[in-house]
């Protein structure tokens, strides 16, 4: 699993790997919002947690179709599937690689971009925490969707349609935790629910992803 | 696609599958490799011991030749044998990104993977595509001396003569009648 993770990370940071695509998208959305909404600090601070969360979610969505598509095109996927690595671990390694290249940079960049949106200082830890807990779930759900659509031509649209409804609970609880943090309300409940979703994803989705891969590989 | 195919191989034995395009050679190999279930029948002894090589080499353009082989060695938890670069004439290409290799060189890299993963049963689907005569000879030498000669087993689907003097299985008589192929629902799933 370490070998596969290392390979995917190496491929992501080399030329054409698409590392930074999600981060750049995140940056662009957050920078553009004040131009669209207007520079009033009170309004921006109010919508900042939601904007940051929606932007992070869309940024994660952007690179999902690459998770398995490239391995499918060059024929690596059947070779990986016949390797001694269990298919579930393959799914987990792929999701982890996606999170490290997409989710983790978003988590790190979010507080900086929060400043641009006048997010109050007391919200920062909550925003960081909610993104740190929520983005792995986004990667895991996305990997599952990518496995379902890997064999399809132009599967990107279908992938978005499958994945977006599954992203909604993560978005609701993630943005809610950040919003409550921003307003100084207790944010433990949405964070716990978010953590519950995340743990459920870690426990179940690698198996679902592996099953989907076995079907698409036939 | 195929029906009534039956064979058994002992260590050191190879088998060449013959048959027209689209007859089911690839399907048979994929089934033995465990990538798809057989509609009926049994496969014994392959599974965890099998290494599969398809038409495609699964080469990542951004990785170098050495990194590619190192990755497969790590994934299969084997040591990267030093002589593999000599064996497949890749010594001069070690640090070249795989994306800059020619089709034949890429194929050699794909085949070198087989020497790295250390599997006893090799399932080879058209291994010599885009190889020149010299490289075919080298590959045949690898199969004879480094694989079959050390007790390995190989099932090879190929249209050319590898010069290995292996027994051949003609699949044409095993072509399944159309009605035996299952309904359209089954094909869809």
UniProtKB/TrEMBL annotation, chain A:
Key words of the record: Cell inner membrane, Cell membrane, Cytochrome c-type biogenesis, Membrane, Transmembrane, Transmembrane helix, Transport
Superkingdom to which the source organism belongs: Bacteria
Bilayer disposition of the protein: Multi-pass membrane protein
Main location: membrane
PANTHER family membership: CYTOCHROME C BIOGENESIS B-RELATED (PTHR30070:SF1), HEME EXPORTER PROTEIN B (PTHR30070)
Entry function: Required for the export of heme to the periplasm for the biogenesis of c-type cytochromes.
Family: Belongs to the CcmB/CycW/HelB family.
Name this protein carries in UniProt: Heme exporter protein B
Organism: Limimaricola variabilis
Organism lineage string: Bacteria, Pseudomonadati, Pseudomonadota, Alphaproteobacteria, Rhodobacterales
TrEMBL record, chain B:
Top-level taxon: Bacteria
Domain ABC transporter: 1-189
Keywords, in A-Z order: ATP-binding, Cytochrome c-type biogenesis, Membrane, Nucleotide-binding, Translocase, Transport
One Pfam family in the UniProt entry: ABC_tran
Gene3D superfamilies recorded: P-loop containing nucleotide triphosphate hydrolases
Coiled coil residues, start to end: none
Signal peptide: none
Protein name (record): Heme exporter protein A
Originating species: Limimaricola variabilis
């Amino acid at each position: 699993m370490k070998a596969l993770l290392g390979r995917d990370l190496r491929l992501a940071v080399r030329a054409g790997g698409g590392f930074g695509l999600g981060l750049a998208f995140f940056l662009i959305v957050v920078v553009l919002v004040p131009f669209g909404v207007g520079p009033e600090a009170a309004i921006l601070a109010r919508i900042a947690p939601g904007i940051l969360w929606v932007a992070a979610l869309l940024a994660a969505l952007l690179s999902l179709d690459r998770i398995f598509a490239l391995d499918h095109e060059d024929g690596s996927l059947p070779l990986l599937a016949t390797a001694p690595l269990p298919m579930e671990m393959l799914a987990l390694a792929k999701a982890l690689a996606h999170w490290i290249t997409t989710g983790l940079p978003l988590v790190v960049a979010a507080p900086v971009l929060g400043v641009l949106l006048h997010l109050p200082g007391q919200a920062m830890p909550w925003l960081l925490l909610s993104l740190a807990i929520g983005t792995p779930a986004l990667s895991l759900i996305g990997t599952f969707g990518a496995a379902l659509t890997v064999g399809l031509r132009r599967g990107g649209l279908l992938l978005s349609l499958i994945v977006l409804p599954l992203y909604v609970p993560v978005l609701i609880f993630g943005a809610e935790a950040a919003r409550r943090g921003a307003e100084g309300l207790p944010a433990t409940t949405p964070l716990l629910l978010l953590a519950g979703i995340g743990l459920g994803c870690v426990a179940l989705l690698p198996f679902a992803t592996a099953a989907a891969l076995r079907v698409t590989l036939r | 696609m195929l029906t009534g195919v039956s064979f058994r191989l002992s260590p050191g034995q190879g088998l060449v599958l013959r048959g027209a395009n689209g007859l089911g050679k690839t399907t048979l190999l994929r089934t033995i490799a465990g990538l798809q279930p057989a509609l009926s029948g049994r496969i014994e002894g392959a599974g965890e011991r099998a290494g599969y090589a398809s038409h495609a080499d699964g080469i990542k353009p951004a990785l170098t030749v050495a990194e590619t082989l190192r990755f497969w060695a790590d994934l299969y938890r084997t040591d990267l044998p030093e002589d593999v670069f000599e064996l497949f004439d890749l010594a001069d290409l070690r640090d070249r990104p795989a994306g800059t290799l020619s089709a034949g060189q890429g194929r050699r890299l794909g085949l070198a993977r087989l020497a790295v993963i250390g599997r006893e049963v090799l399932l080879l689907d058209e291994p010599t595509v885009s190889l020149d005569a010299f490289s075919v000879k080298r590959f045949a030498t690898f199969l004879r001396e480094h694989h079959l000669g050390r007790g390995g087993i190989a099932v090879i689907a190929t249209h050319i003569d590898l010069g290995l003097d292996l027994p051949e299985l003609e699949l044409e008589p095993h072509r399944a009648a159309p009605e035996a192929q299952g309904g359209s629902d089954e094909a869809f799933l």
